[in-house]
């Protein structure tokens, strides 16, 4: 096993990246793809173990290095210099983030995601022209001092820092990167009345409470943003927070995690008020969230909205809040 001092420069930097909190993997010399002879399973074998890293570059000193940022770190991959120039003018705080220049003049920018948003962004969806989403524990980037076959290489313009030391993604930029919030379910003749706002909030909470494992974070963020879009219409933010947090805990999320995500979603969503046009039918908006959830609970059109109220209880296992429904007796209001 070679000592760190006997490693090539790229191997030494790979060890440094690992010590900063990033997993690395060896790449074929002069290429961007994982080295099949060293990591036959590719990205799945990315590691922070120094002994493993030293063994890789001890066997292949010419290997490049791929860097896999953890779940809470977003890497913006700017294909072209003009894409980076335009966005940094719009968000000058991006200049505080670690960044490296790519061989074609693009930029890799490292930013910290707000708590609870780890699963809310997709590396396969491009929402900004010329910008790909990397990192988040799912997509690696080629890192300095890797050189490609034509001799061009990667170089840091602002050094990499630990994940917890990275600047956060600017709120305005994050709003553009996230998928749009779901439209509110429509109701007949209620406008933006307090009653309608409450029923919309309850519908959002129902969706959060019914979210399956693997989709709870994304669902909570989406509907917290949607509820935030109702705040300019008069929805009580404290009521929204408590009901959504209770719904998230019913789905199985820890309270602290749920509350952080809800507060962030409400804050961001309030910057983009949801349009509440005059509705044309009761909960008939096409494509609203998980259609299957309301297929089993959609009221008959002959029923008048407002036939009960929801309450937050704390009688479940381990004190988890439970959303319950209390029917209204004695006629319609």
From TrEMBL:
Q: Report biased composition (Basic and acidic residues) as residue ranges.
A: 310-320
What sequence ranges are listed for the domain DNA primase/polymerase bifunctional N-terminal?
A: 14-173
Q: Which Pfam families does this UniProt record tie to the protein? A: Prim-Pol
**Which SUPFAM superfamilies does this one have?**
Prim-pol domain
Which SMART domains does the entry mention? Prim-Pol
Cited InterPro entries: DNA_primase/pol_bifunc_N
Protein origin, superkingdom: Bacteria
Region feature Disordered, mapped onto this chain: 168-188, 304-333
Q: Where are the transmembrane segments?
A: none
Protein name listed in UniProt: Bifunctional DNA primase/polymerase
């Amino acid at each position: 096993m070679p000592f760190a001092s006997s490693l090539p420069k790229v191997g030494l930097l790979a060890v440094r990246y690992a010590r900063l909190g990033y997993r690395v993997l060896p790449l074929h010399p002069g290429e961007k793809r994982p080295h099949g002879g060293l990591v036959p399973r590719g990205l799945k074998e990315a590691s922070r173990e120094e002994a493993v890293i030293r063994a890789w570059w001890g066997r292949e000193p010419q290997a490049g290095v791929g860097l896999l940022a953890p779940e809470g770190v977003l890497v913006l991959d700017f294909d072209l210099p003009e894409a980076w120039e335009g966005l940094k003018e719009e968000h000058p705080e991006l200049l505080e983030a670690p960044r490296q220049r790519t061989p074609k003049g693009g930029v890799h920018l490292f930013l910290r995601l707000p708590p609870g948003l780890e699963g809310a962004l997709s590396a396969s969806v491009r929402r900004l022209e010329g910008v790909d989403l990397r990192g988040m524990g799912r997509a690696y980037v080629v890192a300095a001092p890797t050189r490609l076959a034509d001799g061009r290489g990667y170089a840091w313009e602002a050094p990499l820092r630990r994940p917890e030391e990275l600047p956060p993604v600017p709120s305005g930029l994050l709003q553009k990167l996230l998928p749009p919030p779901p439209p509110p379910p429509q109701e007949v003749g209620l406008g933006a009345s307090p009653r309608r706002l409450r029923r919309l909030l309850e519908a959002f909470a129902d969706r959060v409470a019914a979210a399956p494992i693997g989709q709870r974070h994304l669902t909570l963020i989406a509907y917290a943003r949607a509820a935030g879009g109702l705040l300019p219409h008069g929805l009580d933010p404290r009521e929204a927070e408590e009901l959504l947090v209770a719904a998230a805990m019913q789905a199985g999320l820890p309270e602290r995690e749920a509350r952080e995500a809800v507060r962030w979603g409400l804050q961001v969503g309030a910057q983009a008020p949801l349009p509440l046009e005059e509705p044309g039918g009761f909960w008939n908006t096409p494509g609203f969230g998980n259609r299957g959830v309301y297929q089993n609970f959609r009221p008959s059109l002959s029923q008048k909205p407002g036939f009960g109220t929801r309450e937050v209880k704390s009688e479940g296992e381990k004190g988890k809040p439970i959303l319950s429904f209390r029917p209204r007796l004695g006629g319609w209001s």
